[in-house]
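Figure caption, in words: inputs first, then the predicted bound structure.
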Amino acid sequence: MRLSDRAKDVSDKNMSFAERIYLPAIATGLGVTIKHFFKKKVTIQYPEVQRPVSPNFRGLHVLKRDDEGRERCTACGLCALSCPAEAISMVAEERKKGEEHLYREEKYAAVYEINMLRCIFCGFCEEACPKQAIYLQSDKMAPAFYGREEVIYGKDRLLESKDKTRPTDGPKRRLTATDTYIDPIAVGYNRQLKK
Ligand code: SF4
Ligand code: SF4
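Bound structure (iron/sulfur cluster present):
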């Protein structure tokens, strides 16, 4: 009984002279190759050339500033809690007197990191944010990387630049082993980075 009609009977007949010298098969193969020389190329010279993407494309994240140039993020942790890949970590700090021109809210993210190796660009962080502080840019993809340390994006690479001439101008501070940071699993601020 045959389960489908895709089964083929294998023939064990002797090869013909043309099959034994392989030349007709080689010529047929070359013909297929040459045919593709004259077709429209499907490859592009990425990253110099990029394909057009949908306006809804979810690309590289950016931490936004408000109209006065102050950081919008209040380190509430909702983006980290909603992230299915647990890619976001942050350290919250209280805004000090005299820093009102830097941070819009009384609490801000002194450290904000996204692990791009984990991120699946779902956009849940953007949807969860009550302060419109994080967006996934539709015109900028996360670039390729060559080392694991390059995939942790801190504020130095995420924060929007004030003067718009540079891509980012955030501080370089990163999570350290002694930082207490937002733990998306424990839903709190109580786990320390493992050494
Ligand atoms: S886009 Fe999705 S996976 Fe990436 S950081 Fe945001 S919530 Fe996490
Ligand atoms: S980016 Fe938005 S959701 Fe995430 S900590 Fe900042 S304010 Fe909260």
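Confidence is low (pLDDT under 50) at residues 186-195.
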